[in-house]
Amino acid sequence: MGSLGGHDGRERRWRGLDGLESRNRPPRSLLVALLLASVTLITLDVSGGGSSPLEPARRVVGEAFGPAESAAAAAVRPFTTVPAWFRSKGDLADEVRDLEASNAELRGKVELAGFDRNRLEQYDGLTTAAEDLGSALVPARVVALGSRQSQSFTVTIDAGAEAGVGPDMTVVNNDGLVGRVLRVTRSTATVLLIIDPDSTVGGRVGSSMEIGFVNGSGSLDQDASLDLRLVDDASVPARDDTVVTWGSTTGPYAPGVPIGTITEVYSSLREASQRAVVKPFVDFSALDVVGVMVPSGAESDRAIVEADGSLR
Amino acid sequence: MTTTRWLAAFAAVVVALVVQVSLFPHLAWNGIVPNLCLLVVVAAALTVEAPFALVLGFAAGLTLDLAPPADHIAGRWALALTIAAFLAARVRQDVRPTALAVVGTVAAASFVATSLFALSGVLLSDPAMSVAGLLEVVLVALVWDVLLTPFVLPPLMKLFSRLSPQWATQ
C-alpha cells in the first residue's frame, strides 16, 4: 500500500515482477475519473434545482425502463395474491366482524351527514357559481417502487403523457391523497408520495378549517407517517380530526382531498407551535390502483372516470 | 469479446434493476429491498479485470440514479457503486474465490455502498433522515444482499468468466 504514491518508476518495476498481482490492482486514475464524474453529476443536479440538466437524461432512461417495469409488474401481479390463499377462516371471521363494526359506525355518520351536505351544497353553489371544479381521474397501477436505500418514497405508475398525465397533477386512490406527479414519460409517470420527507402538502383541519402544512416523516409506519404544523400557533388541532388538502386548482394538490386523521398532538415549546401526527388514510405499503386527477374532458389513451362517476 | 461482455453486463444490470423495483417491493421488509445492481457489480469485480468492473459500477449506479422511480440527486449511487466496485476488485485473488470470500465481499460492498449513499444524502441534506433509520436501512440491506448472494452471484460469475477467458479465475 505504501508503494502506491510517489516513485513511479520503482513502483512499475515492482509491479512488473508480479504480473498476476498487477492486474488485481484497480487503476487509480480510472477510479479518480469516475469519482469526479459522479461528483460533477451531483453538482449539476444540485445546482440545477427544478430545471436540472439531468432531467432530459432521466426522461430518456424513463422511456426505456417504463415499459420494462410495466411488463415486469404485470408478470408479477398474479402472484401477489398468493399470501391471501393461506388466510384461515378465523382471520376472515375477524375481518368480517371488524368490517361490520366500521360499517355500522359509517352508517351512523351517513345518517347525520344529509343535513350537513345539504347546507354545504348551498354554500358551494354560492361560492363556486357556475365554475366547474370537477376533474376526471385517469386510472393507473403502481408498477415500481423506490427502495428505502434510495431514501425517497416514490413510485412509478403505468400512465404517462399519452394518458393525459402531466407534472404536478394530484394522485389519489379510493382512500385519499397518494401524492403528486413529478415527471412523466410517454407511458409512465413518477409519483412523489406524501410520506416522502421532501413532500409538503397544504392541509386544512376539517372541523376548525385551520390551515397548516403536512410533511412526510419518511417512515412506512402507518401510524406516524405524516406531521402537521398549523400556521396559527394559537389553535390546537383535535385528535381524530380529519385533515384535507387546501391546495388551489392550479397548484400541485387539488383542494378537498382527504389526507388522514390526527392521532396525536404535541405542543413544541421551542418553536411555540403545535405539531400533530397524522395517520394517512392510504396504506402506502400496499399501493396498487391509483387515479391521477386531470382536467375534466382531457384527452387520454384509456377510459377515464369523469367527475360524475361516468366512464368515458 | 469485449462487446459481448459489455452487452451481457448491461443486460444483467437492466434485468437486476427491473426486478429490484418491480418484483422485490412485494417482498420488501419495511420498504428495504436487496440491491441486485450491486450484486451484478460485485460479481464483475470478482471475475473480470478491475477497469471493466469500475466502469460497470459507475454505469449501474447511474442507471439506478436515473431510472424511474428514482428521484434523489443523480450521481449518488454512481459514486457509491464505483467505490464498492473498487473495493471488491481489490480483494480479488488469483485463485477462485471461496464461497466465504464471495459472501464477505458482498457484505462489505453492500455496507460500504449503502452507507456511502446515506452519507452523501446527509451531506447534501437531500432527505433528512435519522441516524437510527439509516442504520436500520444499512443493516437490513446488508442481510438482504447476503441472503441473495448464493442465488445471484454464482451464475453471474460463471457468465462473466466465460465471456473473458483471459481473465477467468479457475
TrEMBL record, chain A:
| Residue ranges occupied by any Rod shape-determining protein MreC beta-barrel core domain in the UniProt entry | 149-293
Q: Which InterPro entries match?
A: Cell/Rod_1 (IPR042177), Cell/Rod_MreC_2 (IPR042175), MreC (IPR007221), MreC_beta-barrel_core (IPR055342)
Q: Which UniProt keywords apply?
A: Cell shape
Q: Which family does it belong to?
A: Belongs to the MreC family.
Function statement: Involved in formation and maintenance of cell shape.
What protein name is recorded for this chain? Cell shape-determining protein MreC
- The organism encoding this protein is Nocardioides astragali
Q: Coding gene?
A: mreC
UniProtKB/TrEMBL annotation, chain B:
Q: Which residues cross the membrane?
A: 6-24, 36-61, 73-91, 98-119, 131-153
UniProt topology in membrane: Multi-pass membrane protein
Chief location: membrane
Keywords attached to this entry:
Cell membrane, Cell shape, Membrane, Transmembrane, Transmembrane helix
Domain of life per record? Bacteria
- Pfam families of this UniProt entry? MreD
Indicate where this protein resides in the cell: Cell membrane
Similarity-based family: Belongs to the MreD family.
Q: What is this protein called?
A: Rod shape-determining protein MreD
Gene of this entry: mreD
